[in-house]
Write a structure and sequence with these properties.
single chain; 343 residues; mainly beta; Neuraminidase; 4-stranded antiparallel beta sheet; 52% strand; disordered N terminus
């Protein structure tokens, strides 16, 4: 503020006071969507760190330095299966598959960091389709997107809803994706795009659906419903049934998309591509670990990923700005990790 005062030394005291008031009105209250995008504080009461879900039904947290490990929420159900996770407005959101009484549902839920106030935000009958297993939140516009495969229509769609609406009223945002099993989704709030991976087969932590070994990486609009999908990268994985395209994350400011790909020769990598998905190269090559879901720590310039390999459940990380740099085991887990998010 000292520099700010120096530049106003020729202004009258009353105008100076008004200017200071306006300064604080704009930058402290951060009114307007343009300021939300630049100075987004919707998760400020959530501690900075890594959030993840484990298949057996827990939502978890740990700091970047490995301290403060905490189980935020445990389902208590006899048959939970937690799949994906994201963060918004002091809440942790996740997808799961579990029973309500005798009936099996796919659901989107949320809870506070203190584990209090768990809410079911949206549900689908398991008998009607598949998912949602993937979700992504556009924090700048307070909206949430997820993928869902409906049995009667025999294709996968992306739906979008306003988080503040009660109840949620989903709008079909991207229709009829030709790969039935969506694996992961992310949002580029800066350049207003969504990215997602989908395959003909889904498998994580022993949970599977579909068949075949083909898949794609897609890009779509964030601000207007699409009449069709935009399929940019396609390939096949190992012979038989496999999920060639897995986790995906985007650094909109840095200009890169990161996604997981296992090719027909079983070479498993985190790939780095430009925002148009028009060029790509291996960025992190799997060693004695698997790579499934990924998340970016843009402040500390790290990339994190989950691994379920030979009954070893782990989270790894590496430098974001140099390929295969400082790859390290970050955390050993008790159960398979199925989703990860960074705040």
């Amino acid at each position: 503020m000292a520099v700010f005062k120096k530049r106003l030394h020729l202004i009258s005291p009353s105008l100076y006071a008004l200017t200071v008031i306006l300064f604080f009105s704009i930058f402290v209250t951060r009114c307007g969507s343009e300021f939300k995008t630049l100075f987004d504080d919707t998760d400020d009461n959530l501690p900075a760190g890594i959030y993840w879900v484990e298949s057996e039904g827990t939502v978890n947290y740990i700091n970047f330095d490995g301290a403060g490990r905490k189980t935020i929420y445990t389902s208590g159900s006899s048959a939970p299966f937690y799949v994906d996770v994201d963060l918004y407005d002091d809440k942790v959101y996740w997808t799961d598959l579990g029973y309500i009484g005798p009936v099996l549902y796919y659901q989107i839920k949320r809870v506070g960091f203190d584990g209090i106030g768990r809410e079911v935000m949206y549900s689908y009958l398991e008998s009607d389709g598949f998912g949602p297993l993937s979700l992504a939140i556009d924090k700048s516009e307070s909206s949430i997107l997820w993928g869902y495969f409906k049995n009667t229509s025999v294709h996968h769609d992306i739906f979008k809803a306003e988080i503040s609406s009660d109840p949620w009223v989903p709008v079909k945002w991207v229709p009829a994706i030709n790969h039935y099993c969506m694996y992961s989704m992310c949002v580029d709030s800066i350049n207003r795009k969504i990215y997602y991976t989908a395959n003909t087969y889904y498998e994580i932590a022993g949970f599977n659906h579909g068949s075949g070994n083909s898949g794609s990486v897609y890009i779509g609009p964030l601000d207007a419903a699409a009449s069709n999908y935009d399929q940019r990268i396609s390939d096949v994985g190992p012979a038989g049934v496999s999920t060639p395209f897995r986790g995906i994350a985007v650094d909109g400011a840095g200009g890169y998309v990161y996604y997981v790909f296992i090719n027909s020769s079983s070479s498993l990598n985190i790939m780095r591509a430009d925002l148009a998905l028009s060029s790509f190269a291996p960025w992190v090559t799997a060693g004695s670990f698997n790579i499934e879901k990924i998340a970016l720590d843009l402040k500390n310039r790290k990339i994190y990923w989950t691994s379920n390999h030979l009954s070893q459940y782990r989270i790894y990380r590496a430098d974001l700005d140099a390929s295969n740099s400082n790859v390290e085991l970050f955390l050993t887990l008790d159960n398979p990790p199925t989703g990860i998010a960074i705040h």
